[in-house]
């Protein structure tokens, strides 16, 4: 019997049985190895931390099946599928579930040398690649990333991999800043963004950064972040808040000629799309230019989903990557901060 996670209401998650359909022509059946919680998106949906009438309100309908970052193995091929093989590991944008039947062209092969737990960051890497693209990084660039959660961590690594000279990361949670340092941050700022200006100038040769990325999803951060962008610089709005009416422009935009640009998972085109991004991300992992080592801080059996989401909501600053282990074959050593089933 297959199982999946389902939200039936605010702060109500279940581990439910379901019967997947056989794969049709052009489809495959995949069994899960692991899936990564997108803590920002999923906790907003889980706790209904969004305003009525927003796109969140139109999206989160019950039953709601959370998740979009699963690593699994192909176990059955539908008619006409030749580009995949049985037992091949693939990355799939589907919800947290032990099995999934998906179109073959929606499966992205994972190289043999990339551990499953590392590969599980593929979806968040794609989302943040859109932020990096919107930033229009230049060699020797300067960037401030506000927020050191999973989106901030991935943004830090993209900026470093793409050649920024100064990569600053700000967060209220000191422990999260240590992960940013490991991922390429040249300087970190521990504290409220409203009080960060002097530290930013000190860490960036007396200048404000050309790019600021707001990865937080907190509406009140937006106005403060605008004040930290260099004249004629860019603010990239990457964190998707549940209360966009709380985001306010300041005079910085018109007086200092700032560009404000939103970045979203769906901003694909013929040149920059899922297939290309995932292939490039896996290449960066293989060559060591993009490291996600140590970012999985908690692992749960999927049947302990209530514990996982409660932790993500109530102690989010004490977590980074929260992984659902579906098959017990994650491919990397146990992280030090691990939650095991039954503990």
Can you tell me about this structure?
By secondary structure, the chain is α/β, with parallel strands linked by helices. It has two domains: 2-121 and 292-325, Quinone Oxidoreductase, Chain A, domain 1 (Alpha-Beta Complex), CATH 3.90.180.10; 124-262, Rossmann fold. 27% of the residues lie in helices and 24% in strands. The chain has eleven helices and 15 strands. The chain has helices at 39-47, 55-59, 116-119, 122-135, 150-161, 174-182, 197-203, 221-226, 252-255, 274-287, 305-314; strands at residues 2-9, 12-18, 27-36, 70-77, 89-92, 99-103, 107-109, 142-146, 166-171, 187-190, 211-214, 234-237, 259-262, 296-301, 321-325. The strands form three sheets. Strands 3, 4, 5, 6, 7, 14 and 15 form a seven-stranded mixed β-sheet that branches. A six-stranded parallel β-sheet has the order 10-9-8-11-12-13, sandwiched between helices. Strand 14 (296-301), helix 11 (305-314) and strand 15 (321-325) form a beta-alpha-beta unit. The chain is globular, with a radius of gyration of 20 Å.
């Amino acid at each position: 019997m297959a199982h999946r996670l389902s939200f039936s209401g605010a702060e109500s998650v279940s581990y439910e049985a379901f019967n997947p359909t056989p794969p049709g022509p052009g489809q495959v059946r995949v069994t899960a190895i692991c899936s990564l919680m997108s803590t920002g998106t999923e906790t907003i949906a889980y706790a209904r931390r969004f305003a009525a009438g927003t796109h969140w309100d139109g999206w989160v309908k019950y039953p709601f099946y959370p998740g979009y970052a699963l690593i699994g193995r192909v176990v059955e091929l539908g008619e006409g599928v030749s580009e995949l093989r049985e037992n091949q590991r693939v990355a799939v944008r589907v919800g947290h579930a032990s099995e999934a039947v998906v179109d073959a062209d929606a499966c992205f092969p994972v190289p043999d040398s990339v551990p499953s737990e590392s590969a599980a960051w593929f979806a968040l890497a794609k989302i943040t690649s859109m932020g990096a693209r919107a930033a229009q990084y230049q060699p020797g660039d300067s960037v401030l990333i506000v927020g050191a959660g999973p989106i901030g961590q991935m943004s830090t690594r993209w900026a470093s991999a793409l050649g920024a000279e100064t990569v600053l990361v700000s967060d209220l949670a000191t422990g999260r800043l240590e992960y940013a340092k490991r991922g390429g941050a040249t300087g970190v700022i521990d504290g409220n963004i409203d009080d960060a200006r002097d530290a930013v100038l000190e860490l960036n040769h007396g200048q404000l950064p050309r790019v600021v990325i707001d990865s937080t999803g907190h509406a009140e951060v937006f106005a403060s972040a605008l004040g930290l962008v260099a004249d004629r610089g860019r603010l990239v709005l990457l964190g998707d808040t549940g209360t966009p009416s709380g985001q306010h422009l300041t005079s910085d935009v018109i007086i200092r000629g700032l560009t404000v640009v939103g970045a979203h998972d769906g901003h694909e085109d013929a040149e920059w799309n899922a297939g290309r991004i995932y292939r490039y991300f896996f290449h960066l992992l293989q060559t060591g230019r993009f490291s996600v080592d140590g970012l999985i801080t908690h692992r749960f059996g999927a049947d302990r989903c209530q514990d996982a989401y409660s932790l993500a909501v109530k102690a989010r600053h004490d977590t980074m990557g929260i992984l659902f282990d579906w098959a017990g074959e994650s491919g990397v050593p146990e992280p030090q901060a691990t939650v095991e089933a039954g503990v």
